[in-house]
Prior knowledge:
The chain is of the alpha/beta class. The protein is 54% helix and 9% strand. It has a five-stranded mixed β-sheet with strand order 1-3-2-4-5, with helices on both faces. Helix 9 runs parallel beside helix 12, helix 15 (262-275) runs parallel beside helix 17 (300-313) and helix 16 (283-295) runs antiparallel to helix 17 (300-313). The longest helix is centred in the first third of the chain and has 16 residues, at 67-82.
Amino acid sequence: MQIIDPRSGKPLTADPTSADAAAPNAEQAPVRPEDVIIELNAGNIQQVLEASMQVPVLMGCYSPSNPSSSTLIAVLEKLVVEYAGAFLLGKLDIEANAEIGGQLGVRAVPDVKLISQGGLVDGFQGALPEKEVREWLNRYFPATGEAPPTPEEQAEEALNAGDTAAAREIYQTLMGQYPEHYAYQVAFARVLVAEGQGNEARAVLDNLPPEERDAAPARGVRASIEFSEQALSPEDIAALGERTDSEAQYQRALRQVADGQYDAGLEALLALMKQDRAYSDDAARKTLLQVFDALGADHPLTVAYRRKLFAMLY
């Protein structure tokens, strides 16, 4: 199906049935923002709805005075170009077009509606982060090639590489853009732990709403803080020398966990359980459970070592 610009009637992309489009090495011009983004108003909205018979239209309802809706619109403007004409983006300023907003049933912004064949297919409300918007879009539109890393992915990559300053900056930006997306505050606390700022991390977690403060992600960060505080310093670990007693094994495992060497630490704790289950009132098993909490229930290491623990116990 050929995608038509509802403003000019000119094609946005080549007709896929044409010989040129079918050529294996045919090069298509990159999609420009002005080709796929339309500012909606009373004069063109009917035309855009008619255009949805040919190409889906993502209608983003926003208010210039609402920072969160403006942030979401910026994300949609980026993604509509990235998806290379798979859909059009219609931006509706409900302050300037209150009557249209009322007809569409928009009660709060941001409000996003997916229109196809002239009808509502799906939608969502609220300023979702880019990663979640991308996941929502992928239900309906195939991703065009390899997607660029999201801010969350960039932050995780930086943190894994030991660049806590870069991770901190990204999460601070995300917290400012999405103040009610508490996962960013939990992730920011995790960065603080990596920087050795356990008290500051606790303060961030303590300021979360109760349901978020007591949820598994926040509990996991608290467990990481405890590991860092309980573990011996690298110098003290080195001073253990060749000791192989249960205390030395436990302290080495705890240090590995505190340093993020979860695989090695879990393996060492499991080995200690096999060797000396009674050590320090079953400390190895209790610490294993704390590490599971820190990693999260779906983490591959949690899944693998829960199975090993279950097999050992039963």
